[in-house]
Amino acid sequence: MYFHGTTTVNGQGHLEIGGVDTVYLVQKYGTPVYVYDVTLIRERARGFKQTFEKLGVKSQVAYASKAFSSIAMLNLVNEEGLSLDVVSGGELYTALAAKFPVERIHFHGNNKSKEELLLALEHNIGCIVVDNFYELELLESLCNEQKKSISILLRVTPGIEAHTHDYILTGQEDSKFGFDLQNGQAEEAIKIAMGSDHIKLLGIHCHIGSQIFDSTGFILAARKIIDKLAEWNSKFLYFPSVLNLGGGFGIRYTEEDEPLSPDSYVKEIIIEVQNRTKSYQLPMPEIWIEPGRSLVGEAGTTLYTIGSRKDVPNVRKYLAVDGGMSDNIRPALYEAKYEAVLANRPTATIEETFSIAGKCCESGDMLIWDLPLPKTVSNDILAVFCTGAYGYSMSNNYNRIPRPPVVFVENGEDYLVIKRETYEDLIRLDLPLPSKINQS
Predict the structure, then answer these.
(1) Cross-strand bridge partners of residue 16
(2) Residues 6+ apart with CB under 8 A from 113
(3) Which end of the chain has fewer CB atoms within 10 angstroms, the N or the C?
(4) How many other C-beta atoms are found inside a 10 Å radius of the C-beta of residue 338?
(5) Are 135 and 112 in contact (CB under 8 A)?
(6) In this structure, are residues 128 and 152 in contact, taking their beta carbons and an 8 Å threshold?
(7) Known catalytic residues?
(8) What is the radius of gyration, based on Cα positions, of the chain?
(9) pLDDT score for 139
């Protein structure tokens, strides 16, 4: 049994997170419910920052908020002195509502709308990560109209494939993201940005994928980008003040996963950039990274109530829970794997193997296949670990199922930070058919 962060078994024999009994949390908030270990999030954030500080490298650690965004989460990120990566107008609006310091907000995305860019310009955010020529032209036009200036990074694809699931690769040449590093697109974009009266080109950005378990991909990406930067420096005296190598640092979902520690990723990236720039006699740029999953993934646990059971003789035993692909779609999308225990009896003797089914009307709504568990009955509580990233943020109302609440726990205290949706919430935006059509 592998526990993350402050998770443990308490004196009552129940699973405890952040000093709070999970059985108590279920009694108070119901199920399903997402529970976040705030202490673990703080430890991860400080681990990334302190590694840069110890090595004396100027940096920004920006939380990739697509992993999980809420006002309370962004309050926490701000408390820890991180920057913030947003990828939509909605994430930017949430950051503004959370009063996140605008100078530490970085806006990503491959198809930002005019309205989203105007919102960014209106609030003078710290940086826009420009993804394509259309956006570069649109941003120049809007800055001219608004009499504004903005700092940018140019996103490039370095042609490095990370060892991860095909659907979440983003750094290879055949990608919807960024300017290609090899075919001249990135160089042309740099020249355009350098010629602008309104755009300040801070540097270069890349992101090579997600759930990466070693530093090889980051090192190769840094090497290719710096080699190209050295070429551009010779050609037209351009060298960035910022090199953003993205995120994608892996976490442990199951025993099959063997990620590096956060400080190991950072150290190896820094050493490569230092050595490569030194070899070209170029200045050391400021290093930015964008951890998302690695900050919140292992900190999240989803608690469910077990309902029905179905035994298929000589085939499989199913247990159904009161959630599923509406609160965790990753198993259906990516065949993602998770570990789980009974929160009310985590140390009971393992007796059977079950497959955990969700309640959605889809045969593919399966959370975990072949999970060893004790003898299990209805109303037992199942705790599924490592659901802190892309659980709530990808949750949905399929089958008109309300989204679960989110609770933060820390030092024996629990805080409701997102309310459970109600049936009334589900129809709040619905409009009836006009009476004239209705009567016909």
Answers:
(1) 8, 21
(2) 89
(3) C
(4) 18
(5) yes
(6) yes
(7) 361
(8) 24
(9) 97
Is residue 248 annotated as involved in ligand binding? Answer: yes
In the predicted model, residues of the chain with pLDDT beneath 50 are: 165-167
Nearest alpha carbon to residue 364 among 323, 307, 311, 324: 324
Establish whether 238 is an annotated binding residue. Answer: no
Residue 137 counted as an annotated binding residue: no
pLDDT digits (tens, 9 = 90+) for 296-316: 999 999 999 999 999 999 999
pLDDT of residue 209: 87
Q: Is the pTM of this model over 0.70?
A: yes
Strand order in the sheet with 20-21: 8-9, 15-17, 20-21
339 is in an annotated binding site: no
188 is in an annotated binding site: no
Q: Is 398 annotated as a binding residue?
A: no
Question: What are 236-295's pLDDT values in tens digits?
Answer: 899 999 999 999 999 999 999 999 888 899 999 999 999 999 999 999 999 999 999 999
pLDDT number for residue 368? 98
Give the pLDDT of residue 166.
Answer: 46
Tell me how far CA of residue 387 lies from CA of 41, 47, 158, 331, in angstroms.
13, 21, 30, 11
Could you give all domains of the chain from N- to C-terminal order, each with its CATH number? Answer: 8-30+299-426 (2.40.37.10), 38-292 (3.20.20.10)
Cα–Cα distance for residue pair 261/169, rounded to 1 Å: 21
Q: Rounded to 10 degrees, what is the CA torsion of 172, 174, 178, 184?
A: 100
Q: Is 292 within any annotated ligand binding site?
A: yes
Contact at 8 Å (CB) between 243 and 277?
Answer: no
pLDDT score, position 104: 98
